[in-house]
Amino acid sequence: MTAYAIAHLRSVDFGPEIVRYIEEIDDTFTPYGGRFLVHGVEPEVHEGPWPGHVVVVEFPDLEQARAWYRSPAYQAILPLRTEHSDSSAILVEGVPPGYRARDYLIKVGHS
Predict the structure, then answer these.
(1) In angstroms, rounded to a whole number, what is the distance separating the alpha carbons of residues 51 and 111?
(2) For residues 37 and 30, what is the distance between their CA atoms, to the nearest angstrom?
(3) pLDDT per residue over 41-60, tens digit each?
(4) Which listed site, 3, 7, 82, 83, has its alpha carbon 20 to 30 Å from 14?
(5) Containing H/E element for 21?
(6) What is the 8-class DSSP label of residue 31?
(7) Beta carbons of 35 and 16 less than 8 angstroms apart
(8) Distance between CA 38 and CA 5 in Å, rounded?
């Protein structure tokens, strides 16, 4: 099942550390099949406050996403982002083809 790494960047100190992080992050994806889906665009906000930007990276599955996040290559550059931005990051598993919102009701016992 496809998985995603999602980051919400609310405030970024765009100095040399962030530049280095951006220059080096692509290579950390390669061994894990990761690729950017969303990066560096202004979100079109329709509901509620959304300060900052969102980044979405796709991986073949959750195990590959976890392996990437824990990898020595990514861990080596991670402080460049975390120490120079106000941000949050999560890993989430996608849904299978054909998924419908009502499938969630079955999952939680409200069929």
Answers:
(1) 37
(2) 14
(3) 889 999 999 999 999 999 99
(4) 3
(5) helix 16-29
(6) G
(7) no
(8) 11
pTM of the prediction? 0.91
Residue 59, SS3? strand
CA angle, residues 20, 33, 62, in degrees to nearest 5: 105
Residue with tokens 């460049």: 80
- Tokens for 72, please give them: 């020595």
Mean pLDDT calculated for residue range 31-47: 95
CB-based contacts of 42, cutoff 8 Å, min separation 6:
53
Is residue 3 a contact partner of residue 57, using CB atoms and an 8 Å limit? no
Instruction: Give Cα 33 to chain centroid, integer Å.
Output: 14
- d(CA 109, CA 107) in angstroms, rounded, equals 6
Query: Which has the closest alpha carbon to 93: 4, 18, 30?
Result: 4
